[in-house]
Amino acid sequence: MCGICFMCGWEPSALHPDQQEGLSCKLLSCRGPDVHMKDVIAVTEKISGVFEGHVLWLQGPQPTPQPLLDSRGSALLWNGDILAGHEVPSDKSDTQYVAEQLASGQTEEILSFLGGIKGPWALIFFHRPTNKLYFGRDVFGRHSLLWRLPSPQHPYLHLTSVWQQCAAMQEVPAYGLYSIDFSSVSLDEGFKVNLLPWVHLSEQSMSLLHPVVEVERHVRLGSCLEHSLNMTLPSTAILEQLGSLPNTLEHHNLQAFCGVLGDSIEQLLNVLTQAVQRRVDKCPPCCQQCTGSPSHCRHPRIAVLFSGGLDSAVLALLLDSCLPTEESIDLLNVAFPNRVCFSGNAGGKSKAKHKPDNTPAMNFEVPDRIAGRECWQQLQQLRPHRDWNFVEIDVTGDELSLERERVIRHLVAPLTSVLDDSIGCALWFAGRGQGSAKGHPYVSPSRVLLCGQGADEQLGGYSRHRGRYKAGGWSALLQEIEMEVARIHTRNLGRDNRILAHHGRAPRFPYLDEDVVSTLNTLPVWLKANMLLGRGTGEKLVLRVAAATLGLTKAASLPKKAIQFGSKIAKLEDQKEKGSDQCLRLSCDLRPRRGADFFVW
C-alpha cells in the first residue's frame, strides 16, 4: 500500500513543498513507511507540480521510490497491486513495470494495459511529451484517491490517497481513467477534465459527475470482468427443488444441499482459493518487523480481519492452504465494551470480583468475540498443524474517543455519517492489530490484511435482500443484487482502504477478485441466495454450504451481523442516531462528559 499525492497551482507562490508538512504528510507516510520521496516537476512553463510518494513494499526484490521518473521526464505515482492479468518480471516491482507500460503515452495502449490488470489500483501519471496527467482508480474502487479540483477562487489541483479533514476534498469516482491536458487547460477559459469510462458503465450512472468532467463516449476502458450478471429466474421445477431443501446446514443435510448446488460449490472454492493464493504470492517473504531480512521469516505476514462469521472464517481456512506450514496466521478480532457495570451496584448483577465500589468492570464478550473464539477453536481442530493467533483487541471508550479525534476522523473524511463513524472506528482498531494473544500483549506484524468485503453484495447477504424478496419475489431479489454489484465501486471501499492502510498494512479483498466476481456472476440467483430458507441458511447459500463441507459448521450457520453491531461499537454512542445521520463526532470538537469508563455524548 502506498500514499501518493500530487498538487499543482496556477499562482507563482502556490504549493511550495514545505506546505506539504504536517498532519496530512503524516497520514500519507503511515500508508507507506518503507520509502519516501518528493519531487517538484515543471508541468508547463508556468505550472510546477509536487509529486510525493510514500511506499509500502509489497512486490519486487526491493522497494521502488516514488515518484518514478523516466528518461523523458514522465512521472508515475502508483498505489496498486498487479495480482494477475499481466506477468510482472520477478526482477522488477510492479511500479517499474507499470511505468514501462505507460511510457508511450498513447491513450489506446494505456487503456488496454489498465483494463487488463487484475487487482486494486490507484495511479497518478504525468506524461511529459504530451503534457497530459492521467489518474483514476480500479473498476471496484478498492484503493483510495481523493481530489479537489481548481476554480478561480481556489486555483489549485489536488490528488491524494488521504488528506486531513476538509469539506472540499471528495473521492475520485471510480468511473474510469481521467486525464487533464496541461497544454490547453486554463482557469480563465474554464478548467476541464476528460473521463474515459469503464465499458460497462451506463450514462445514468455517470449523471452525478462534477460539472468540469467531460465524458469521452467514443472511447471506453475495458475490464477483466469476463461475465455479466446471470439474470435467469428459477423455473417451476427448480422452485420445487428449492422448496424441498432442509432448513438447517447440519451434517446430515449437506448431501441434499450439494445435490441442488452441484458443481457450484467446488467452482467457488477453487476460484476463491486462487484469489487468496494471489494475495499471498504478492507479499514479501518477511513481516513488518523483519523488513530487510534476506531470508523468509516465520512471523505472521498475513492476517485476517476476523469476526468469526462466514466470510472471514472461509478466508482464514483457505489462507491455511496457501501458506507454508511453519508460518502463523493472525486472526484480528475487535470488541468494544458490551456494558459497564460496577461492583457496588444495587442490582448485584456485576460479574466483577474483588473490585472496590465504583470501579468499572469491562465486559468485552460481544457477539463477534464469542463467535470469533468458537470459530478459532474449530480452526485449531481442523488445521492443528497451524499456529493460529487469536488476537483479542479490546477498545475502551476513552481510547475510541482519543483516536477518533486524533486520526480516525481524518481517514473517514470526506464521509460524514454515523455509519461511516462506527465502521471506520471498528476497522481502524481491528487493522491496528494491537491487543492480546494467548494471554499476553501482542501487536500483529502482518503486512497484508485479508478482508471479507464484497461477499454480501454479490450473495444476497444483507437484510434488505430478504426484504426485497418478501416484497417482490425472485425478480425483485435479482434486481437488488444487480444494483448492489453495479454500485460496488461507489460504496465505501475507498474509506476502508484509507482506514486499514493507515497501519502500514495492505487490505486485500479476495471476494472482489475479478475472477471471483466473474464466477459469481455466472451463477443463477437461487444458488447464491435462497430466501425460502431462514436466516443463517438462505442468504449466501453457496458460500454457507461450501463452509459447511470444509468443516466450518459454526460459521456456516451464523446469521449476518454487521461489524458495528457484532463488535458493539454502536452501543457506545447515541442509540437514537440513524446510520445515515451526519455524525457530529467526526466533524466537531469533542467535549465529552465522563461516564463510567466510557464517554457519554
Structure description:
The protein has 19 helices and 24 strands. Mean pLDDT is 88; it is low at 16-20, 341-356 and 588-601. 32% of the residues lie in helices and 19% in strands. α6 packs across α16 and α9 (397-412) packs across α10 (418-432). With 601 residues, the protein is α+β, with helices and mostly antiparallel strands.
Question: What secondary-structure arrangement, pairings included, does this model have?
Answer:
Layout: E1 2-9, H1 23-31, E2 35-42, E3 48-55, E4 68-69, E5 75-80, H2 94-102, H3 107-115, E6 121-127, E7 132-137, E8 146-148, E9 156-160, E10 170-171, E11 176-181, E12 193-197, E13 213-215, H4 236-243, H5 254-261, H6 264-281, E14 302-305, H7 310-320, E15 329-335, E16 339-342, E17 360-363, H8 367-382, E18 388-394, H9 397-412, H10 418-432, E19 434-437, E20 440-443, E21 448-450, H11 455-459, H12 463-486, H13 493-501, E22 506-508, H14 514-522, H15 525-528, H16 541-549, H17 553-556, H18 563-566, H19 584-587, E23 593-595, E24 598-600
Parallel strand pairs: 12-13, 14-15, 14-21, 15-18, 21-22
Antiparallel strand pairs: 1-3, 1-9, 2-3, 4-5, 5-6, 6-7, 7-11, 8-9, 8-10, 11-12, 16-17, 19-20, 23-24
Helix pairs in contact: 5-16, 6-14, 6-16, 9-10, 10-13
